[in-house]
Amino acid sequence: GAVVSQHPSWVICKSGTSVKIECRSLDFQATTMFWYRQFPKQSLMLMATSNEGSKATYEQGVEKDKFLINHASLTLSTLTVTSAHPEDSSFYICSAPAVVYGYTFGSGTRLTVV
Amino acid sequence: AQSVTQPDIHITVSEGASLELRCNYSYGATPYLFWYVQSPGQGLQLLLKYFSGDTLVQGIKGFEAEFKRSQSSFNLRKPSVHWSDAAEYFCAVVPSPGFQKLVFGTGTRLLVSP
Predict the structure, then answer these.
(1) Which residue from B42, B99, B105 is facing A43, i.e. has the nearest CB?
(2) Which of chain B's residues have a Cβ under 8 Å away from the Cβ of A32?
(3) pLDDT tens for residues B49-61?
(4) How many domains does chain B have?
């Protein structure tokens, strides 16, 4: 139980284009979704928290206009990297709290901007 | 400052030997405590969690962890390591009750030698 499905697993895009990453809670309702970024061989850095039906809360230093987060329903949260540049290349992971299971994580998205 | 510390960046253990990964936190109240494992290019998998009650927690894959309030620690242990245990291990904390954002340690990379 408490599975979060994240897509795509990897994506390569050209500099200046936008990329959307989706996270779906498959068997539970996720009113909250956390979005993390992970650089190689480093820990996870929380970027923002999305809540269904309200604006996302961004961590200090995260550009709201570059990383657009939408939590359209109780089962879907999306992260759109707008006007992507090579420095946005990273591993992005979503996570949702599920009471019994603690926090459940998506499988991650490897973004490469060329 | 409030934080989660994993003092060991890398640990190498012989297959079949015992393992202990250290985690300390600096929060006043008893937080929710988690251990996650991450294989390369993958999301995070929950090994075990502690909310309250018995301070020795059993998890998946033969792992256990012990919460020691006096030492503000939540060390992860396994009596006999298998080669498949080689991965990155993260300790994480929710500083106060309720499912708010996780604070991650910096991670410990486990290498298993033959």
Answers:
(1) B105
(2) 99
(3) 998 889 999 999 9
(4) 1
